[in-house]
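Supplementary Text 2. Reproducibility record for the structural model of the 711-residue chain.

All settings were left at their defaults, and a single model was retained for analysis rather than an ensemble. We include the record here because the model underlies the residue-level annotations in Supplementary Table 4.
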Amino acid sequence: MKRNLFLGVACFCLSIAKLHADEGMLIPLIIKAFESDMQARGMKLTAEQIYSVNQASLKDAILQFGGGCTAELVSSQGLLLTNHHCGYSQIQSHSSLEHDYLKNGYWAATLQDELANPGLTATRIVRMEDVTEAVLKNASSKQDQTRISANIAALVKQAVEGTHYEAEIKAFDYGNAYYLMVKEVFKDIRFVGTPPNSIGKFGGDTDNWVWPRHTGDFSVFRIYVGKDNKPAAYSSENVPYQPLKYLNISFKARKEGDFTMVYGFPGITEQHVVSEYLKFIVEKERPARIQMRDESLAAIDAGMKSSELIRIQYAAKQASIANGWKKWMGQVEGLNNLGGVAVKQAYEVKYRQTAASNPAWNIYSDALDSLNQWYAKNADKEYRYAMGYEYFLVGPEFFKLAKSTAEFIQMFPNNNEEAQREEKRKLLAKARGFFKNYANSVDRAIFSALTIRYLASEQSYLKDKERLAFLKMSVDELTTAIYDRSLFTDSTRFIRAIEGYSAKAQKKLQKDLGYTFYTAFYPVFVQEVVPAFQKYQARITPWMQRYVEGKYVMFPKEKHWADANSTLRITYGQLEGSSPVDGMAYTEHTTLNGIIAKNKTGNPDFEVLPRMVELAANKTYGPYAQGDELWVCFTGSNHTTGGNSGSPVLDDKGNLMGLNFDRSWESTMSDYLFDPDRCRNIVVDIRYVLWVMDIYAGAKHLVDEMTLIKE
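Retained model, structure tokens:
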């Protein structure tokens, strides 16, 4: 397929853009094609102001934060806003019983008080380029990975030669198109401030993924660079970054119908999946993973309620596990309510009928049929992978330490004493970091519950005597033995064993029940389940490539957009409420009054500190109110997904209205199917963010760095 097949969508989709302009995650490079429609919807910007490589544009203020979220620059001194939940692991890592920033918040009074975060990065996109033709040059087909990989390597090398930039090329539409992203990666990101959990996580799991919402989901960081204003590793000599572009703050009064634009790095959508796959997701895969996380969260929640230390240790872990868990429940409910499988099946009837009208298009209907047949017969491979992922990578934590120890044993030198000391030092450092955030009682409960479910899912595949031997023990007996006696579930036992490590000690360690259990089952996942899943996926890719190609070829007047893949995208819509089900109408914004009303219910997820109650009672809103209300959150009809967390929501002039942080319960299905009548993104109003900084926390010096626009 020629490259214009992919880019041609920018032209022909405009004929229906006014009908469905809220759907789709648009590539900034082709935003010019949507400029007139966006301006008709109220935007005052030009495409060049949104994305340009010749001059500073909005894209230069948007950064990928830590690889999984979005952040935006809001001052000339590199001040960075993102979501509270995006910065949560950093907040947690700096917290202790003595300095409980999770509970009490933190605000750096000076630059010297801003805290370093090893490993955290923020990435600016320097430019994007369609390189489809160059990637496919001399390739025998779109599946010629040898040639494609060689072309990609050459293009990446050429793109960054002589610069401090990095680059990558990503496939779009299953390899029907390729885009080059040249990136500037900042490596010294410091923690500046956060509200307490009672603001940043207000509503907890009760409100997660639902509307109305009252969460002040934001945190503050700053980019530091070398004296040449270029990225540099952490150094006390580094200085605040002076950006090409930063966002002004919109203090303009909002109203329903206002233009909104989200600019960020959405993670993954799967809009093209066929009906059999969606059926598998709704009926089997999601329910099983939800059950696994039900068990983990029950154990973690009980532990966090029992101890202040455990609350701090598991705060970030709980938030991470719970986020996917509740999202999946919303997806299943939303897809069932929408009749998602039937919607896909109806589209597939139309697709086959269209393909039948032209003999050259039979290849497209063949691809569709092959996909549905493949999923119907082979989805168990994905199910095993999902269960193994939940068990080994999300479940019992001592598996992580066992994995590091297994790697240590394999590489431990026999004769070189200096190398031995270094490897022991590395493992002991990992272990101390591990046990800092580990509670035996919590992990014990997780292991007991998840092992029952995992072994039940794997039982028909267990044939090896080594693994079958474990089934002779009850899970209760196994749990007690591992958590009472294993080296891997107690810091004192483990550290003593590694400090005194020797060839003789190695034999003892390898007989440890926790270790033998891990080494009996984890290799099955890595060596059998994962490769089988990868082969299963590899068969799918060329069919999906052909199936998606058919959409472009057979339906040239329909709007098409590439699935999200963690690259920079734009979506636009308006500030609006919704009526997701019969008899229910959601307003477009919430206020501080709603926080107090929820607090009075007594639900612990709605606890606030006394200062919030006092300020609300006195209506101490400062300059941040709209009329006699302090807006907290609002919803928009922008198509978002994971990775859009922290994304700026911009007004008609490109000023910052708020930070995207969630979707409504009815919207979580939008990764697979987007319904413009139901799907809404949830935003914390920037005026509430600044109210928390200034009035609530007394950190007005941060607000003073920003440029406030009232018109």
